Amino acid sequence: MSRKLIESEIWENPPIHLKVWMYLLLKAQFKPYKNLERGQLVVSIPEIIEACSYKVGYRTEKPTKSQIFNILEWLRNSNEASDEGYTNETMIETMKTTRGMVVNVSNYNVYQDPKSYEQNDEWSVEESTNNTMPKRQAATINKNVKKELRTKEVIKDNVAIAPVVSDELFEEWWNHYAHKVGDKKKCRTKYKSLLKKNKHEEIMIGTKRYKDHLESLKARGEFAPNPKHPYTFLNGENFKDEYEASQSGGYDAPKTNHPDGFDW
């Protein structure tokens, strides 16, 4: 673990902050593995609670869910110099998954790169000067890689950081969509492309509105068309359609520009 940790702002926070931060650092991938990149991990709040529990005599004390949530929120919003003060980024980026969340440790190299470690033996001024440029280059490369990822639509809290994440988001939507017909693989591909410009939460909310609309028509004894083919629903981006609540508490017909309305 690099001595940069001592210089970090989190060092002045309550001990539980540091314990959570160290757990994330140590659990993050040291090198790419399966669908996770270096500096990434999949974790859940219950897992962090268990990992950060401690003994007081025979009694086990555990941080609360609220504490862990607040610490993660602090890490998501706290700016940390990546190296020598050249760039500032949040300490972590997170994205929800069905198994918890994917955590991306920003500036992972600063804390887990042997080149960043301060030696216990004597460090000459000459050695320190010579090592400055490689560190700056590493920080620049790291920053450029992040920008490249973002240009590929890997956006915080929106697009999956890794393929496994977008697969899980699709499965959540697929399980929610009642009319499961057609080519699921084709729907999966379409869903992933939609995540490049739409938030998963927005798609889910729009899908629920559509489902509620059909159920409302049936409850009022009105004509309710068959649910759309899932691919048609995604391809037409019908989750963006607006449904106005009727006086009876249901939903009126959607405001949509799609010529097919609710037909397949």
Number of helices: 10
Helix content: 40-55%
Strand coverage percent: 5-15%
Mean pLDDT: 75
Main beta sheet: 3 strands, antiparallel
Strand order, largest beta sheet: 1-7-6
The shape is: elongated
Stretches where pLDDT is under 50 for at least 5 consecutive residues are 81-87, 117-129, 151-162, 244-251, 256-264
Pattern of helices and strands: HHEHEEHEEEEHHHHHHEE
- Kindly name the structural category: alpha+beta
Compute the gyration radius: what is it? 24 Å
The total tally of domains equals: 2
Q: What gap, in angstroms, lies between the N and C termini?
A: 58 Å
Question: What is the number of beta strands?
Answer: 9
Description:
By secondary structure, the chain is an alpha+beta fold. The chain has a three-stranded antiparallel sheet with strand order 1-7-6, with helices on both faces. Strands 2-3 form a two-stranded antiparallel ribbon. The chain has helices at residues 4-7, 15-27, 45-51, 65-77, 108-112, 125-151, 163-176, 184-194, 200-219, 230-235; strands at residues 40-43, 54-56, 59-61, 79-81, 88-90, 92-97, 100-105, 242-245, 251-255. It is 45% helix and 14% strand. Mean pLDDT is 75; it is low at 81-87, 117-129, 151-162, 244-251 and 256-264. The chain has two domains: 4-151, no CATH class; 163-255, no CATH class. The chain starts with a helix and ends in a 9-residue tail after the last strand. It contains ten helices and nine strands. The radius of gyration is 24 Å and the shape is elongated.
